[in-house]
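TASK: fixed-backbone design
INPUT:
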């Protein structure tokens, strides 16, 4: 990288011009709000136009809000026979007053060569220039000249693009939030980002390969390229927990896309309160099994029942009757005619009153009978027994609150499984806090029950034109079924790492994931092979664990061969909590990372001990909550650390992680691959053989 480049001053002037044009665009967008003035006497049409313009202006202002992110990050010069143009590549498209492009959006077709061009395949370029910036200041530039094929090796395709800018970005201190990579996207990443919209695209990527940011940049690219119809259909990004969502929430707005929905599985269900907890492995695996499809369907069917006794109700001077056999006929007809439970309620009610009216003397009108008797307690109880209107929470609250109902829904369940599913029924299901493992069951119940009468809009399932799923390797078949139900047309991007599969439904290969996703088109598989985040010495340590945890997978190739080796800290003795000396290790690593951040990663059961040590030592820290990574030190249980990156990491008691987690080796692999600069292993117990120093 040439810092004192002879064209640095001229390029800085161009960057300043781009910012000036951006500010002018913001000013013009604000002026649009004055186009429609609506006073007290304004028409509905005028009010509608004002709201439409204000929404459009708000969206445009979101796109033009760069914050502290650099606006311009490169330039391409084309050969004459390719058009001879010179284009500056940036975060958004910017035009001058003459409507000539000052800056080309990184997603535009002409910008593709900035990321894809190689020596053997220059894509019409004679020069590619990468900028190194901090905010509005241009710090340096790096040029790549094309045309002389002899200077390019056969493996040029795998060479880093803009290596100087990339290394500067990698070595910048972390902020507790994931940053975008729009200025340093590499060729294998760009191929995934710009892949076609239709079908399922599956991305395998080891730690530090950038699979999360690639998936997010792909969402931004698809919205730019397919604004219609995706802007109306919506784009959904699903992450494993709320800590992860907080970590990634700034990426898409920094790319000019503020309308993407970020959600956990619990958020996707809607209408219930769901936290990030996953139940113990046995229960979580049972609830994630596809046998739950029939389980939930039979649970709903058990709520469709004939009367236990003949019904007799007074009507004026006579008695009206409904026999058990007549009620059974009504139930059977409703089952035959309707696909969802709640949709049949009106039919059941209508046939109920027809049968009552037919049992009386004279020509009774069923509608009149209904109007007169609908408030009677006996009538209400009979209808609620035969065919109650149910929400998913009501169905599962009743189901799990009765071992008899659980056995009726699946007679093949063992007594231990019945006991594991059973929990106390509560009076108001709206008060329940469900677990993440319950999410697909609640969603299956919604599909079986259907919308309640008069609540079609509230109970509708929201679908999306494209869905991005991160950490997909931990999702159960029922989880994947739920997400597939929300895909409008089968267009999805799913990213993960089989070696980091640590959940109750840890998958061993991609086939077991893809078979549960939409299959309108054959799935397209991609693999990210280069690790950008993790220095070589740290990746070497993790590779030893990977060889045991997933011997069929190769570790990513680290682009940074140099770096600090992992530090092993043996705590003195194992008295008390066994963590004497941890506070000193934290202070040492904090000083070593300078302005960077630090994660203290421990087994789930040990995080409280870690927090107690830090509190007694007077060390401020954040917890694994939505804002946990805003602190310089964060204490994170190993089950929540996946997908995060920090400058420094301290892994506490690897042996305990191995011992307490069902996928212990993979959990340890995850913990060892979070740091971009420094890693310390703190232990009082003996180290596992896979990482013995």
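OUTPUT:
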């Amino acid at each position: 990288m040439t810092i004192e480049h002879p064209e640095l001053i001229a390029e800085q002037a161009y960057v300043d011009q781009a910012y000036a044009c951006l500010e002018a665009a913001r000013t013009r967008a604000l002026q649009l709000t004055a186009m429609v003035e609506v006073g007290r006497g304004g028409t509905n049409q005028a009010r509608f136009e004002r709201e439409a313009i204000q929404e459009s202006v708000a969206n445009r202002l979101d796109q033009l809000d760069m914050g502290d992110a650099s606006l311009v990050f490169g330039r391409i010069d084309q050969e004459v026979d390719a058009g001879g143009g010179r284009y500056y590549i940036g975060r958004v498209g910017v035009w001058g007053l003459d409507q000539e492009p000052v800056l080309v959006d990184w997603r535009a077709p002409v910008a593709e060569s900035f990321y894809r061009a190689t020596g053997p395949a220059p894509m019409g370029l004679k020069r590619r220039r990468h900028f190194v910036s901090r905010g509005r200041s241009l710090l340096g530039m790096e040029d790549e000249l094309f045309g002389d094929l002899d200077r390019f090796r056969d493996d040029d395709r795998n060479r880093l693009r803009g290596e100087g800018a990339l290394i500067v970005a990698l070595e910048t201190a972390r902020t507790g939030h994931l940053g975008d990579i729009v200025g340093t996207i590499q060729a294998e990443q760009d191929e995934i980002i710009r892949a076609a919209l239709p079908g399922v695209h599956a991305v395998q990527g080891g730690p530090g390969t950038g699979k999360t940011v690639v998936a997010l940049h792909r969402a931004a690219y698809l919205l730019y390229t397919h604004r219609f119809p995706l802007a109306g259909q919506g784009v959904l990004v699903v992450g494993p927990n709320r800590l992860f969502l907080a970590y990634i929430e700034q990426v898409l707005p920094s790319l000019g896309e503020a309308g993407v929905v970020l959600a956990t599985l619990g958020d996707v269900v809607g209408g219930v309160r769901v936290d990030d907890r996953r139940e113990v492995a046995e229960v979580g695996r049972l609830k994630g099994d596809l046998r739950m499809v029939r389980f939930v369907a039979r649970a709903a069917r058990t709520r469709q029942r004939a009367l236990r006794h003949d019904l007799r109700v007074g009507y004026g001077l006579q008695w009206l009757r409904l026999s058990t056999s007549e009620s059974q006929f009504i139930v059977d007809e409703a089952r035959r005619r309707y696909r969802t439970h709640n949709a049949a309620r009106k039919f059941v009610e209508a046939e109920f009153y027809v049968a009552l009216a037919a049992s009386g003397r004279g020509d009774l009108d069923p509608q009149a009978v209904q109007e007169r008797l609908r408030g009677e307690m006996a009538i209400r109880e009979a209808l609620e027994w035969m065919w109650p209107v149910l929400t998913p929470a009501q169905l599962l609250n009743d189901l799990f609150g009765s071992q008899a109902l659980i056995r009726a829904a699946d007679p093949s369940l063992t007594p231990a499984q019945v006991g594991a599913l059973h929990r106390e029924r509560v009076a108001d299901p709206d008060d329940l806090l469900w677990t993440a493992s319950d999410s697909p069951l609640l969603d299956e119940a919604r599909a079986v029950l259907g919308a309640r009468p008069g609540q079609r809009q509230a109970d509708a399932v929201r679908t999306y034109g494209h869905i991005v799923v991160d950490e997909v390797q931990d999702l159960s078949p029922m989880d994947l079924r739920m997400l597939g139900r929300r895909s409008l047309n089968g267009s999805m991007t799913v990213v993960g790492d089989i070696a980091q599969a640590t959940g109750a439904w840890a998958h061993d290969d991609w086939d077991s994931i893809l078979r549960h996703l939409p299959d309108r088109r054959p799935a397209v598989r991609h693999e990210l092979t280069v690790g950008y985040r993790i220095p070589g010495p740290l990746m070497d340590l993790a590779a030893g664990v990977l060889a045991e945890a997933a011997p069929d997978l190769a570790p990513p190739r680290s682009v940074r061969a140099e770096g600090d080796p992992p530090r092993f800290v043996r705590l003195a003795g194992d008295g008390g909590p066994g963590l004497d000396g941890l506070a000193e290790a934290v202070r040492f690593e904090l000083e070593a990372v300078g302005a960077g951040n630090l994660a203290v990663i421990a087994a789930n059961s040990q995080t409280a001990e870690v927090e107690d040590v830090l509190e007694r030592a007077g060390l401020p820290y954040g917890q694994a909550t939505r804002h946990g990574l805003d602190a310089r030190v964060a204490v994170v249980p190993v089950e929540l650390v996946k997908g995060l990156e920090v400058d420094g990491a301290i892994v506490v008691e690897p042996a305990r992680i191995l011992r307490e987690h069902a996928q212990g080796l993979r959990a340890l692999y995850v913990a060892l691959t979070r740091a971009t600069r420094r890693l310390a292993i703190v232990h009082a117990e003996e180290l596992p053989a896979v990482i013995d120093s």
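COMMENT: The domain at 536-691 is CATH 3.40.50.300 (Rossmann fold).
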